[in-house]
Amino acid sequence: IFLSLCLVITLIFAKEVPFKGNAALPTKSNEPAEPEGTGPLAVLKGFRNLPTGMPSVLIVTGLTWLSWFPFILYDTDWMGREIYHGDPKGTDPQIEAFNQGVRAGAFGLLLNSIVLGFSSFLIEPMCRKVGPRVVWVTSNFLVCIAMAATALISFWSLKDFHGTVQKAITADKSIKAVCLVLFAFLGVPLAVLYSVPFAVTAQLAATRGGGQGLCTGVLNISIVIPQVVIALGAGPWDELFGKGNIPAFGLASGFALIGGVAGIFLLPKISKRQFRSVSMGGGH
Fold first, then answer.
1. In terms of Cα–Cα distance, which of 140, 120, 123, 119 is closest to 131?
2. Which residues cross the membrane (predicted)?
C-alpha cells in the first residue's frame, strides 16, 4: 500500500523531461570528453578507460566491502547464536533464545540506521576539513576495531559455557548492552561507506568532463564481487574452525585493516576545495 501511494504521488507531481543527449563537456585540458556509453557492455568496456586513480578506488572499495559483508549478512544470526546462545535447530528453549537474539539484533540495526542518518550530515563537512581519503581510511580502521570487538564479545559471552552455545539458554545483560552500542557505533563508518567512495568516483570522473554514471557502474562491480565471495565463502570458513560466526568476523577485521593501509598508499589525493563541488551520493 505504501509503495502504491508513493507511486501515485510520483506520477502526479513528478514532471518528467525526455532525455536529450547533450554535447560532451570539455575536460580540464579543454579537450572534448568522450561520450558516455550505455548498456551492460558499456560497464565492462569502462574498465579499459578508467580515470586516473580509479583502479585504486576499486581496490580499496572491494576490501572495504569485504570487511562489511560478514556483519551485514550475519549480524542477527550472531546475536542469536553467540550472544543469546540460541540454536534455530535445537530444543524449544534454544529456538526461543535464538529468536530473541534475532529480535535484539533487529533493534540494533534500528539504532545503527539512526546513527547512520545523523552521521550522514557530518560526512561532507569532515571531508572538507580533512579530505575524503582521511575520512575513508579512518572509517576502515574503525571497522577493523569493531569487527575485532565482535569476536572478543563472542568469546566473552561464551567463556562461561566452555564454547558450547547449545548448552546456554541465557544472555548476559551487560553483554547485550555492549552489542547494541556496537551496532549503533557502526552507523558512523557505514555512513562513510555509503557516500565517500561514490563522491570520490564522481570527482575522478569529473576530471574527464563526464562519465560519472559509467564509473559508478564499474564501482558497483567492486561491491557485488565481495558480496558473492562472502556469501559463498563465509559458511565454509566458519565450519573450518567450528566457532560459529567468529571466524568470519575475525577475517572481516583483517580485511578492514588491509583496506585502511591500502587506502593510505593507494587512494588518490582529492583536494578539499575540489570535494566541495561534489554531491554526496550513496549506494542504497
1. 123
2. 54-74, 104-123, 135-156, 177-196, 246-267
